[in-house]
Amino acid sequence: MAWTKVVTESASGKIAQEAASLLNQGALATLDSVASGQIDANAVGGSELASGAVGTLHLANNSVTNANMSDDAIGLDELSATGTASGTTFLCGDNSWATPTDISTVANLTDTTIDGTPANNEVLAYDTTASKWLNQNAAEAGLQPTLMPDDVTSSMIGSGTVSLSNMANLTANTLIGRDTESTGVPEELSVSAVKAMLSLDNVANTTDAGKPVSTAQQTEIDTKAELAGDSSQDFSVQNLSVTGNLSITGTSEIRNTTTETINVADNTIVLNSDKSATADVDAGIVVERGGDGRNKSIYWDEGDDKWKFGDSASAVVAGTYQGDVASMDVNSSYDDDSEVVPIGHFQYDTNSSTLYVRTS
């Protein structure tokens, strides 16, 4: 049997060499700790430590730092984590190895040229049509951000960017506006709502025949004569000029002029112009003499077939017979068969300068 000397802790806390014994080895096992000042530099290496000899229970908090470890001192084999580590795995917070789902997309960036110079608020997007990566803004990349109130101001909207074609899904027969007292977004307003806003509730698309007439208008209309010539209405004008035919169908005609003279440009006045059948109506001219005397007339008597003078108290032709109007037939020689003048009237023979009177 052979024995080897070991070190043991003295009563003063120093390490002293003593003869090896079972009791002394037991005393070594009672050491609480060995300070770094008690171990020479590089005195303990990996070869002096058996596998698993130093555990977490043997190391104080923060006792191992980068300065205490050499380069490549800890490799994948020295890390204890679940899963299998590889060149495309990452150590997660739950102490496990995992492969990102988009690692292939990131890998595609190797030796890839990105068109364009990056700018603020741009993203890196892959264009499948062009088969390349591009720096694009949110709109070009097809990203629609969620807008919050007051995110968009009038200065951010370019002139002419809002057009009618961009206002889709507008209900038929509506107008854009706001009928609510408070401020807010525009609303679709119906025709009736717009009429109420503009105080046009009583306006209706009525036909011309259905349009009402006010009381004042109707009063003024009632003073006008109808163009159709209502027989119950009187019609008075300041001056009347007729370029066509003038037809008077009344039973009497009254003409009053300031000069008491009627000028007629025509050289013929036709009385009883409506007669077309039997000649049985007397016609002539009546002189109204007023209250100083009876009226006088000169007229053609259809019954006696001659001109006569008449007398009457009213403006009528004939009246009381006053006498005949003498008529004379003038010939170059006497004609005993002539009936040009009525009985009692004369025929004058210019050849013999003789005056004859008709007796039958």
Please provide a written account of the structure.
The chain is mainly β. Among the domains are: 1-37, no CATH class; 78-104, no CATH class; 108-141, no CATH class. The chain is built from four helices and 16 strands. The protein has helices at residues 22-28, 103-107, 191-197, 215-222; strands at 6-9, 15-18, 90-91, 97-98, 114-115, 123-127, 132-136, 174-177, 187-190, 283-287, 295-301, 306-312, 320-324, 328-331, 346-349, 354-357. β1 (6-9) and β2 form a beta hairpin. It starts with 5 loop residues before the first strand and ends with a strand.
Summarize it.
With 360 residues, the chain is mainly β. It has helices spanning 22-28, 103-107, 191-197, 215-222, and strands spanning 6-9, 15-18, 90-91, 97-98, 114-115, 123-127, 132-136, 174-177, 187-190, 283-287, 295-301, 306-312, 320-324, 328-331, 346-349, 354-357. It is built from four helices and 16 strands.
